[in-house]
Amino acid sequence: MTKPSLAHTVEKIGGTSMSRTAELLDTVLVGARTGDALYNRILVVSAYAGITDALLEHKRSGEPGVYALFANGEGGWSWGDALTAVADRMSAINQTIFSDDGARQTADRFARERIEGVRSCLLDLSRLCSFGHFQLEQHLLTVREMLSSLGEAQSAFNTTLLLNQRGVKARLIDLTGWRESGQHTLDDAIARAFADVDITAELPIVTGYAQCSEELMGTYDRGYSEVTLSRVSVVTGAREAIIHKEFHLSSADPRLVGTDVTRVIGETSYDVADQLSNMGMEAIHPRAAKSLRQAGIPLRVKNAFEPDHDGTVIRSDLPASVPQVEIVTGLKSVFAFEFHDQDMVGVKGYDARILEALKRHKVWIISKTSNANTITHFLKGSMTAIEQVETELSREFPSADIALRKVSLVSAIGRNIADPAILIRAIGALADAGIRPLGVHDLIRKVDLQVIVDPADFEATLSALHKGLVQDWAGPQRQRLHAVA
């Protein structure tokens, strides 16, 4: 390793990677670094895999965690049992991480203090809200934030302790606001925490959750750790932000199209990162990306377990040298919400009323199309919420025909896909694979090409478009450039 410059990096480690602590020691945390090379870095850590799900609710299945049980209130004291189960799970994690009994006991004491402190707060809040003057709903966001902080506090404390055992001058930067009386903005909290930190001689380990006046959970929910990464990068003047995942940012999901044909993207723009977020494949939360983009700080996405690979760098000033598709991704389960009304022609207000209903029921809009008398929104959300929207609009517009069907949306994304051959080849690739698209959206800005298909054709569509627009595109592209030269 070469000696680092004074410009530092801010690096976030995801929860799944954090759970592979022994491997992380040989890659991101220490690896081949010695001496000064260990420093000029700031590490932002997520909770260990599954801990936040247990504290809040399972992100995918919706299975209730401590927060959901407490907020529901109908389960009595079941949330207390769930919190005890989290404590046991944290202790089991500590058992696997620390071979030294003294260190493990120190880690257990830290986790137990936090767990029991939260338990005491929730008991007091329950008693308080048993009086009619106090409503539990007014405090639920605070409860959600407090519970969420437990996971990041444990992983940050453990990582600091583990590195200190290895002779690294690691320092815990606890942004969770534990037992603090005041409240600050996120930037102020970060600035105060780093006021006396010497990045050239210390390795700060920062909690991915930060307690602040902006209430991160209320705005970003599970994306808060990436917001912490971005603001720490901006406030401390980082040279580069890095996100360590358990996989590379690749041209498609290797599990769906094959590991032998996908490739690491290597470089792209924040514009492409926004399109990926819209498709549910977040390289980084869009609001976090905004902070880095505005500050001119590049973001690098790396595989945490391939430290010698440069990964993919994302910058705002990185135009494509030639038109090309960089990644093919999609959503298998999307609702096509089609609103048709013959009376719509020449009348304003229909679109606004539909959007108001979708916003009110917190339905995520992925894409939309419209013509003279039909507006179709492609939506992600619960069937219950979407059906409530349908009921409201049917009542408000009795002459309208509203159709709801499940579809898949596959998107070919790139910084510049303006070459007309891309659309032609996409249609040809689908035809060769025997896929009949339900719709194709080729927008003027030429950063994404969206194909709507039946869910049964989702994986085949991904593979067909990846083959036609990524795997087989390089040869013709090289020939075209050679002819121009």
Structural class, from secondary structure content? alpha/beta
Please give the alpha-carbon distance between the first and last residues: 40 Å
Give the fraction of residues assigned to helices.
40-55%
How is the CATH topology of the largest domain named? Answer: Carbamate kinase
The CATH class label of the largest domain is: Alpha Beta
- Strand line-up in the sheet with most strands: 3-4-2-1-5-7-8-6
Task: Name the CATH architecture of the largest domain.
Answer: 3-Layer(aba) Sandwich
Q: CATH homologous superfamily of the largest domain? A: Acetylglutamate kinase-like
Task: Please tell me about this protein's structure.
The chain has 485 residues and is an alpha/beta fold. The chain folds into 2 domains: 9-246, Acetylglutamate kinase-like (Carbamate kinase, 3-Layer(aba) Sandwich), CATH 3.40.1160; 327-484, VC0802-like, CATH 3.30.2130.10. 44% of the residues lie in helices and 18% in strands. The protein contains 18 helices and 14 strands. The chain has helices at residues 15-18, 21-29, 51-55, 66-72, 78-97, 101-128, 140-165, 186-193, 216-220, 224-236, 254-257, 270-278, 286-295, 350-360, 383-396, 420-432, 458-471, 474-484; strands at 9-13, 41-45, 170-173, 203-207, 240-245, 267-269, 299-303, 312-315, 327-340, 364-370, 374-380, 401-413, 439-442, 448-453. The strands form 2 sheets. An 8-stranded mixed β-sheet has the order 3-4-2-1-5-7-8-6, with helices on both faces. A 6-stranded antiparallel β-sheet has the order 10-11-9-12-14-13. A hairpin with a 5-residue loop joins strand 13 (439-442) and strand 14. The longest helix is centred in the first third of the chain and has 28 residues, at 101-128. It is globular. 40% of the residues are buried. Mean pLDDT is 91; it is low at 1-5 and 475-485.
